[in-house]
Amino acid sequence: MQASLTQALNGLRVSRETVQKLEHFASLFQKWARSINLVAPSTLEDLWRRHILDSLQLYQLSPGTKTWVDLGSGGGFPGVITAICLSEAEGGWVHLVESNNKKAAFLRVALRETGARGSVHPIRIEAAPAEIPSCDAISARALADLSQLLDYCAPWMLAEGSGTVAFFHKGRDYQQEVDKAVSRFQFDLIKHASVVEPDSVVLEIANLSRRTK
């Protein structure tokens, strides 16, 4: 593993095989990003830290062979990164939900060429529960505010007997989103400090229910 890459991983334990797959993904990403807008262009030079490392921390928080639904997968963060980690675990699956056909095409290539454990659903998020009836975990990054995210997640998390847990990357203003969301929902919340940005977090949400008026 290159010294610069070791530094970028910031102490996260990742096997050599997974690192090789992440490097291949990064190469594919840079190639495709020249023609389609996968992430903000200003963040491309910091791809490993801003996007790959930020996504890797999710599997570190919730390892194991789970079935994930990744909402608004875009350029593959965190969904493809989680799917690459699952290939080492030899179990689990990531359903990547992305309605943009160009981005969905990139995601398919990324999954195929890295051997990641996932599939792409080129549909709107609202249609996903009918196609993916259950899951163990949900992820989303840079997609919507927390209240909207919980609306998207409700069909899975409110299902009878559901133990689905959601993980959302959020920036420094996350507390305002939490305060807004609790006016409509009840949930258990764990705030995980980001390994990438000191003011950012990953919100872990479980036991979701709607508040009754």
TrEMBL record:
The keyword Transferase applies. It catalyses: guanosine(527) in 16S rRNA + S-adenosyl-L-methionine = N(7)-methylguanosine(527) in 16S rRNA + S-adenosyl-L-homocysteine. GO terms for molecular function: methyltransferase activity. One of its GO terms (biological process) is methylation. Its main location: cytoplasm. Its EC number is 2.1.1.170. Keywords: Cytoplasm, Methyltransferase, rRNA processing, S-adenosyl-L-methionine, Transferase. S-adenosyl-L-methionine binds at G72, F77, I125, E126, R141. It is found in: Cytoplasm. Specifically methylates the N7 position of guanine in position 527 of 16S rRNA. Belongs to the methyltransferase superfamily. RNA methyltransferase RsmG family. HAMAP family: 16SrRNA_methyltr_G (MF_00074). This is Ribosomal RNA small subunit methyltransferase G. It comes from Sinorhizobium kummerowiae.
